Amino acid sequence: MKRWLSSLAMIPLLLAAGPARADPAAVQAHVVAHAVDGYIRPAFTDFERAGTVLRSEIDGFCESPSLQGHEAVGAAYRAALEGYSRIEFLRFGPLLEDHRLERLVFWPDRKSTGRRQAEAIVRDHDASVLTLDSLQGKSVAVQGLSALEAVLFDGARTALLAGGEDGRFRCAYARVIAENVAVIGAELVAGWTGPDNYGALLLEPGPDNPVYRSHQESAAEILGSITTGLQIIRDQKLLPVIGDSIDKVKPKRAPFRRSGNTMAMCAAGASGLRNFVVSMALEGVLGEESSWLANSIPFELANAARVLRSVPEPLTKTAKDPGVYGKLAYVNLVLGGLRQTVGEDLAAALFTIMGFNSLDGD
Known about the structure:
By secondary structure, the protein is an all-alpha fold. The protein folds into two domains: 24-29 and 205-350, Four Helix Bundle (Hemerythrin (Met), subunit A), CATH 1.20.120; 39-202, CATH 1.20.1420.20. It is built from 15 helices and no strands. It is globular. The model is unreliable at 1-10 (pLDDT under 50).
């Protein structure tokens, strides 16, 4: 850590001559350091808080079921999904360890495997999921926020409010899922802020580093996360719904449509990417010919998030409306253009060679 602090102190000196003549390693170190401290660590902390609130709301509702309580659970659930959407593109380090990504949200799930498994657990009142240890030994598809949608929403409210055997089992299962989400959130924060945390690997590349041998490799990981995030929203969430024309719309392919959270997740993902880029303080390292990127990329992402928030749900009723379809098609176009801008223009401006990201080839 002392070695990194010494290197960090040198960055302003190495950049003092101006971005055009700056040391590439200093530029890359600047971007990585700002991304880690300005976005990554706070975003995982925010997700942990959202998971804790969700757990508390579910516990309160299950102690005394009410319509108001169910609405509070719904709001906390949406906040947790939004928090997840702001970190899901950071597909390296703690999020990929122990299958945490899939345990939180099992998606894409083209055959609805996770939903069918969760529904079977509820139908059979399978008590083997009612402790944290036993749940963590089950399929990743029934452990997290994806399964929670099947347990608490889309017709489940009546059973939950009735207080019968089915409602009690749903509550018991939901409480264990919420506990699991909260535990994973705490593990993620520890992985980014605790002793020997993953941030140190990004911040201190070198020959003895088992993951990143140079600042170029660290910067490529950070920039690759942006293109990953763009692909998640565009290729995994929007394109399967809108197809290539309004006649081929398939709204039932939208993630979390049964709880009405598709657009909330997409908008949160876009705004998260916007904040991620802003956190890098690009204006301090870009040369004059590429300075436009510091404002253009966040501007386009903010526009995409704004449009996504304006799309009414459920998509099963709105996606074929020409106005709604036009909004989704616009966002699709913007995100596709941004992927090229980041992969080519921004990467070149930061002296970074982009490799394959975690979704390439899917």
